[in-house]
Amino acid sequence: MVSVPLSILGVSVLGASCFAAKNVKEKRKEKHNGGPSASANESIPNFEYEELESATNYFDQSNKLGLGESGSAYKAVLSDGTTVAIKRLSNNPMQSMDAVLKDVDLISGIQHPNLVQLLGYSIKGSEILLVYEYVPNESLDHFLGIANKPILSWDMRKNIIVGTAKGLAYLHQESIIHGDIKQRNILLDENFTAKVADFGLARFFQEGGTRVGTADGRNLGYLAPERHIRGNSTEKADIYSFGMLIIDIVTGKGTAPFLRNVGCSLQTFITKGELSCQIWSFYLSDNLAECVDPKLRGKFPKRDALRVLNIGLVCAQASDELRPPMSKVVKMLTDGNCAIPPPPHPAPFDL
What we know:
This protein is α+β, with helices and mostly antiparallel strands and 351 residues long. The protein has helices spanning 49-55, 97-108, 154-173, 201-207, 225-230, 235-251, 255-261, 266-272, 277-284, 302-315, 326-334, and strands at 27-30, 36-39, 64-68, 71-77, 83-89, 118-124, 127-133, 186-188, 194-196. The chain has 2 domains: 6-133, Phosphorylase Kinase, domain 1, CATH 3.30.200.20; 140-334, Transferase(Phosphotransferase), domain 1 (Orthogonal Bundle). It is 32% helix and 13% strand. It has a 5-stranded antiparallel sheet, sandwiched between helices. A hairpin with a 5-residue loop joins strand 1 (27-30) and strand 2. Helix 3 (154-173) runs antiparallel to helix 11 (326-334) and helix 6 packs antiparallel against helix 10.
């Protein structure tokens, strides 16, 4: 069975301040050995803790899907035969139970084919379990730059890029900031359709003292220059990360290693807000096609590849004001007649 990293297995419910204010109907009661328990909106199932515990074989290591910043995830089969992924959240003293329930309620209403779906929850004492749809394929990072993995065709890469863009645009439409766009947070289903996961983490980890994406140095290259200074997540920072993700998918490499390989130091990239020195030089010399993953062996439509890379450059530019909104990015990706502005030179970012 394919192992799926935790960090991509679901939607965080711990970023209430990232969401638009809504009226939430809540109910609270005491149960489970005297510990506090609560209910969110009646529209989302409140599973019995014991049922989920049993479905994971009491959180047996053989069912563990991964370990991430917010806790552990397990594969589970419910009593009706449905296979799901259960996230066992780490204790978070920063959040009240009311705040958690509001987030559960809000996220339960987020449904889009390119977003991982929250199916239910369970609370016992201070422990919170979240139930998500189970996505059978691995995350995107298991198919880029990894030996002995199937090579993603150009059509598959383009569909993943477009699907991710649509999912992110929907989140922004709902006033939800993702805060941690990267390869590991893009799940691929049985048809290699992209499903964005782990949105809403940014605020939670900032309050908890850990900046999302910095726990693993490999993720630094995804963060917008302003986030390295101010730390706050914004829609524009999401767009920057998405631009870097496009470059990853087209080149077939990880962002931070790619920057090092082309002679643009990661420290310079972080402090100056420069994109990839090499990709920019290829853009100026009209040789962007040389950046496309050599594993494709030239089997890709050059014009389309250049257009997609150009969109990546436009999204991942130092000035947040010049980055287009995700709705516009989707249009540029799906409408060949939609004009793409030339990306400005990646000017130094003022500290």
